[in-house]
Every structure is written in C-alpha cells, then in structure tokens.
Design goal:
53% helix; mainly alpha; 9 helices
C-alpha cells in the first residue's frame, strides 16, 4: 500500500511545517511597534534609516538630529569590553575624510567609537580611576562639541576629534593589558 506509507512519511512533516510557520510569524502584538510611536534604533546602522514617523526630514543627517550619546545600545545589551571598543576605534585609522562623500560617516563614526569606548571604560571592573586620563580626554572632547553633533560642527571640530582619538590610542598603547 503505497498511499499508507506515503501518509506515514508525511506525518512528521506537517507538525514541523506548522511549527516553522508559527515561529516565523513573530510573537504577536507584544513586539509590534505601536502606531504613532517611533521606536529607537538598536544599531548605528538603523539610526541612518529614514523613518516617516521621525521628526527628521529626509535631507537631515542622523548626526544633526541625535542628542549625545550618538549611539544607543540595544535594550539589555551588555556594554562591550574595553578591548573590543578600542579595536573598533582603531579601525578608524583605515578611513578618513579623503574619500568624497565619506567625511560625515567617518567623523560620526569616530565620535560614536570614542563614546562607546568611554562607556566601556566607565563600566570596566578596573574602575574609572584606572581609566582617568582617557576618560578625561573623551569628556573634554564631548564638552567642546557643546551638544552639537551636526556634520558642520563635527567638520569644524575635526582636529579635536582626531586628536582625542590619537591621545586615547597613545594612552591605550601604553597599557597593553587593557586591550589584549
């Protein structure tokens, strides 16, 4: 009886298909965004997307509408380790304002990476006293920006951003136990 054998083979497929369908359909209304409320971006990449519910116009850059800090961690996300945040900051040495159209991204990234490193140092079990010098450097840079994270201000303060990155890098290089 081929039809009975085929039915027995198909039986496990049906529950598996039902389970896969229910898993891929989401978790109900608990995670769906509420109409009229803009959700905050969980990643820096999401921050650059245009959202019709956001007050920013499509011509406005993400850095112009962001308040400090310029990046937000996902809810419940752990602060990265100092070594990981420092590695991300070091990757900015392979980039710059020399590529046309890249300067806004680059300067915003340096600012974001310095902020992430600042948060990592503050959360480190070594304590803020261990990282007093780089924390002071980053805080001085943040204060000098005076809450204006727009691209024109970042471009005007480019030397300040890159000097802060360089000084923090120099301090970290003299403390290899903090990034290895």
């Amino acid at each position: 009886m081929p039809s009975a054998a085929a039915a027995r083979r198909a039986t496990p497929v049906l529950p598996a298909a039902v389970l896969l369908t229910s898993c891929s359909s989401g978790h109900g209304d608990a995670t769906a965004p509420t109409p009229g409320k803009a959700s905050s971006p969980a990643t820096p990449a999401a921050a650059g997307r245009s959202d019709p519910a956001s007050p920013a116009s499509p011509a406005t850059s993400p850095s112009e509408t962001a308040g400090y800090p310029t990046t937000e961690a996902a809810p419940g996300a752990a602060v990265p380790q100092v070594r990981d945040a420092f590695a991300v900051l070091q990757a900015t040495y392979n980039d710059g304002c020399t590529t046309p159209g890249n300067c806004e991204y680059f300067l915003t990234r340096v600012l974001d990476d310095l902020n992430d490193l600042y948060n990592s140092m503050k959360a480190s079990p070594k304590g803020t006293s261990h990282f007093a010098a780089p924390l002071a450097l980053i805080r001085a840079m943040q204060d000098a920006l005076e809450g204006d994270f727009s691209f024109p201000n970042l471009k005007r303060r480019q030397k300040l951003l890159l000097d802060a990155r360089e000084e923090v890098n120099t301090w970290m290089q003299s403390h290899p136990d903090d990034y290895r």
